[in-house]
Every structure is written in C-alpha cells, then in structure tokens.
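ugh ok fine here u go
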Amino acid sequence: MEHPVLFSIENQTAIITLNRPERRNSINQALLAGLYDSIEQVSKDDNIRVAILTGNGKSFCSGIDLDAVLVENLFDPRGDGADLPDVVRACEKPIIGAINGHAITGGLEIALNCDFLIASENATFADTHAKVGIHPGWGMTQLLQQAIGRLRARQMSFTCQFISAQTACGWGLVNEVVAPDMLLDRAKEIAAQICMVNQDLLAVVKKLIDYRGTTTLDDAFTHERQGFRAFVKKHLNT
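structure:
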C-alpha cells in the first residue's frame, strides 16, 4: 500500500502530495500524521526553502473521510497533541498550495492554512461544515473571511455551495488560475523565485505578515517599525 502522503525535494523545494486518490485524498489518521511529519521535515531541513502542497488525482482534498470519523484519531493523529494550525504556524518557510481539484471543508481548511494558493482551472472550493454537521476546527470561520471578506465567507459557509477556480480567484481566495497540466510547473516556478530571495529577510517578512492576523493594524505597524529600527541599528550604525 502506498503511503498516504508523498514527500520529495527538487531544487530546495519540498513537494508534499496527498496520496489517497481512490478516496479523493480524504482525511484519515494516516494522512494527517504524514502531512504533519512532512511539514515538520520542511521546518527542520536547512536545504529546503519552500514547500508545495498538492493532491494526487482529481482532488486536492475532499475533506474528512467519514468512514474514519468514529474509528480513527483525527484530533491527535500522532499522539503528541499537535494539530494542523499549530504544525503549519511552526513552519517558518512558505507553503504554496497547488489546488488541483476539489478542496472541500477540511480540505479547504488545509488549503487556507497555506501561505497562498495557485489553482488549476478545474479546482473547486466549498465549505460544507453546516451541511455534513461537523464543527470547523482548523480555522475555516476565521481564515476564509480573512481571505475573501466576511460577506462572501458567510455566503459560502451558509449555503455550502461550490465556487469555481475563476470565482475563487476573483474573490481573492487564490492568487492565480492555470491550466491543469501547468499547475505544478507554475507552483515550482514561483517556488524557485522564493528560493532566490534573501532567506533571512524572507523569514522576517513572513513573520510580520502573519503577525497582523493576531493583532490590530496599529500594533502590527508599530511592531514592524520597531523591527526596522533594530535592523538599522544592527546593520547600518556599526
């Protein structure tokens, strides 16, 4: 049996592939454990500068495997207390979501935890928590409205209807929409651009952008200026 998450490295870029195509990459305990392990490998390996997260087959991730809900530990898949948002936030390197098909409910939450998304023309997105009767827990109610605005997030989450890749791009959920056979190449092209920048400053900028999600604009602005003053003192006033 193939591993539910594949991991490879190309030119300082990690490629993480959800690999349950026969189940539309639905979430079970083994997939979660493999995903967490892969993201932590990105964090630990100094030769990796960026990661691409995608899915094998016609779906990115169709959400929780309902056959696994009552029989597998989806809340603590490795027995160490780690949860998806915690694992992602602990990774200081960018994660690009390459969305190749359905990104539904828990699968959409996985996508939303990436730094940004590139989508195939055949990608679709939906939040069906209210339809299937499962409480969101990986940031759906916060990250979706942060990406597309509160009113559009309400529409998606209240109606549980799918939106197309083109609509997702227009709403700001994804950055770009490309032909299906160009998705991974385009993600790798962007990853290569990220690999070429100053990695120390990249980590700083990523932290500053993420910091805004935890505080007010005034505080985030002050926090950035304090960092700039410290940078100038260290590098220019020696």
